[in-house]
Amino acid sequence: MERDDLGAMVARLGRRLIAMEQPILGRHGLSMWAYVVLNGLAGGSVRTQAALAASIGADKTRLIPILDDLQARSLIEREPDPADRRVRLLGLTAKGRALHLAVQGEIREAEAELLGDLPAGERDAFLRALVALSTRAAPG
């Protein structure tokens, strides 16, 4: 089967997904990186800034202004770690969790529309494969 390289296909799909997500994020006053942070914290586990940066593939020094903005908007909390006061523990606030769920819901609706032309079996197989590949490619 003749096809483009994976990188070319993923890049094309990535550009389409980013273009699809940008207006959704804009309506909610979020940058892509701010959403990535909310998504990274949505699991509920308290994380350090360094651990969050590593898990989302961000430079921790460039992450600080994003965290500052999210905290100023009461979307995240940064608390000193009782075991080491130099370390900040991160978590979503109720407002941050609600915003994350709202944005994620809209993104999932747009994804469903994008994938809607695929037969259900192909769509499910694509999503399973994508989850498996992205899990293997995750930082750390």
UniProtKB/TrEMBL annotation:
Boundaries of every HTH marR-type domain copy: 3-135
One Pfam family named in its UniProt record: MarR_2
Gene3D superfamilies cross-referenced by the UniProt entry: Winged helix-like DNA-binding domain superfamily/Winged helix DNA-binding domain
SUPFAM superfamilies named in the record: Winged helix' DNA-binding domain
InterPro entries, sorted: HTH_MarR-typ, MarR/SlyA-like, WH-like_DNA-bd_sf, WH_DNA-bd_sf
Signal peptide: none
Protein name per its UniProtKB record: MarR family transcriptional regulator
Species of origin: Actinoplanes ianthinogenes
Classification lineage: Bacteria, Bacillati, Actinomycetota, Actinomycetes, Micromonosporales
